[in-house]
Amino acid sequence: MTPKQVKIAVLGCGTVGSQVVRLLSERGEDYAQRCGADLDLIGVAVRSLEAPRPQGVPRELLTSDAEDLIDAADIVVELIGGIEPARTFVLRALRRGVTVVTGNKALLASCGPELFDAAQHANADLYFEAAVAGAVPVVYALRESLAGDHVTDVLGIVNGTTNYILDEMTRSGRSYEEALARAQELGYAEADPSADVDGYDAAAKCAILASLAFHTRVGIDDVDVTGMSDITAADIEQARAGGCVIKLLAHAHRVRVGEREAVSVRVAPTLVERDNPLASITGAFNAVVVDAEAAGRLMFYGQGAGGVQTASAVLSDVVAAATHVAHGGAAPREQTYESLEILPAAQARSAFEVRLILADRTGVLAEIAQVFASHDLSVAALTQTAREETGCSALTLTTHETTLGALEGALADLRELACVKRVERVLSREG
Amino acid sequence: MTPKQVKIAVLGCGTVGSQVVRLLSERGEDYAQRCGADLDLIGVAVRSLEAPRPQGVPRELLTSDAEDLIDAADIVVELIGGIEPARTFVLRALRRGVTVVTGNKALLASCGPELFDAAQHANADLYFEAAVAGAVPVVYALRESLAGDHVTDVLGIVNGTTNYILDEMTRSGRSYEEALARAQELGYAEADPSADVDGYDAAAKCAILASLAFHTRVGIDDVDVTGMSDITAADIEQARAGGCVIKLLAHAHRVRVGEREAVSVRVAPTLVERDNPLASITGAFNAVVVDAEAAGRLMFYGQGAGGVQTASAVLSDVVAAATHVAHGGAAPREQTYESLEILPAAQARSAFEVRLILADRTGVLAEIAQVFASHDLSVAALTQTAREETGCSALTLTTHETTLGALEGALADLRELACVKRVERVLSREG
After folding, report:
1. Most exposed among B102, B174, B212, B259, judged by the fewest C-beta atoms under 10 Å?
2. Rounded to a whole number, what is the distance in Å from the CA of B116 to chain A's nearest CA?
3. Residues in A touching B302 (Cβ below 8 Å)
């Protein structure tokens, strides 16, 4: 029996695309065994035919006509990144019933509903393991391994750049600026690092994780985002003194509001206690902790970026997609059968740590405590330290779990007090 | 449109089975959404209809006629454990083309080829996520998430009982016997702990992991097994002094032997350096580290045992199986297209740590070093310490990576030396 042929088109030939092309040719026999079909790479669409390409990319496969290539393919692998022209190409493929594999988190988090609707309408399949946490198979875990369970919480380090910077600050005592410069030297951060350090990359991944975990649509605009570029060496030192490290975390929680369930999604620099497995994730690694009712706590750990690592995730999707193209059956579909409310940021629940700079005179503690009590905020711990600023002390308060809104109410009142010079830092804290 | 009905039969109603029955009824609506089909639990086969059952198991579903139940089902969930009658029931189902979901590692590792052949012959599907590492989705990871990659090494803590005992010995300084008694009190160890502490449970899981990772058939008899019941408090203390903890590890490696590839599989108590992520896996948790060519290093972590946790893994398989039953398509099949040689234990490669008790006189180090050199064994480190035994010293040697066979050759010669009182301990060491 002649094995079936599945025609693969790759769009984009950057760091990930070129690795996908190389592995498709080097590991072709393995993939054929695993799919029960030959994977036939019919072309690689690029913007410029003349640009230099890494070794292992056959020039005769390059084309600048993405649309013709899409129309001839069984599976389109979109690795262009960004919104356009990726969106147009992906929609073209899906509308023709062509399976799409993408690693494009920005596209999914911004245009997910449009893509999923197009896929459903044309009975096409959309795979996106590579869009979250690179080689870490957390999309599979949520879509399939936890299909028999009820996920309540997802907490993740899903941006390697910011984890590298924060880890470098923690290990060396360097400032944010110095650690960023080091990350840029090593290729872990872009020349313009804003998508990473301002939290938008993590927010896109947070939206995708929440959609999968809670079976409801969550877009990037639903995610409350706080970046980490204003974290200082002093914050890191303060965290250490309190038995914590600072991590930029994606938080996705299923919460009960009265009779209903809702979803809370946010990205924020967070104090993580040293016993938490996320505290030990160093360098540019990613890790996602999932809590499910039956399974309990699971953690997935690995490399969240890098061309060849991300290519591994893309190719697992290609093998699954090709198996379905060749042998039929039900591919994983968007499963957003719940329509859960997205909680406003003010209702997000967490323990918080607040650092206040106070006039150093007797009676201030009582005034502060009074404000917290009047907002029904329960204080778990506090530490007061003298400061070099003349006549000032720093007070660090840790609250029990509360809402961001309740905390902000208290902070507004605190700012009115004469004894409060300023609110220096507010961070979520995870046990 | 009336949703499709998929008939589920559960065999066995112990700690896992009763949780599966409970969750099938409590989460039925979720599962229906996820499968596009209603899961209809048609019966639960038990040995005794009179035995007491946990709440949530409807007595009217119990039957003592497993065969009739199997013959009426679309999916059989086998949670009896052990070889017989589980083997007979699973074969009956598969031969009739009925999908089987099992958590039975002993059955798979002992009778895998017979089951997979029966499944293939009747075009039936066999799922077994729960057979390895409980709720930790490592079977999915190897079968699907890494389908686009080339796995080279799998290293795992896959037995929670022994990890609890070793962790307890490490944290409290207790002896093996005391730690075992504590594990038995807490329900982490059986009254007869031999399957766990002698390494056979881990060996069954090691065989399953190796089969999945390397696409070749590996059975429990292929695995070289060393148990951990002779590990002493002194070994644990010695490990700590050397910057390590002792873990019972399943090792599965793809190795090159001349022109060919082969597989090395073994279970052994192993020194794990403190920086290795496996060193920090405490209590009864499980963790599996997978190294793949493109993805690099991944780790999967979670609860490896427990009724409800294992039920989560069983139900993820049930959801996948029901989706396939209702909507057709290619379910994951055994993919053993490679026929890799299983390396004899003597050829397993590792760094080793050897503790020798020596007569305490000058010149012994030179004699020892000469033996290692004559066997072409390169020594990475050595430490000599005085011992309470009169006139003795202890010498701890760490080798560079070598084969177990080469090491045993050297040990045989060492035992011939007058200055060597005894070889006290030999352990593999992982960086």
Report:
1. B259
2. 16
3. 295-299
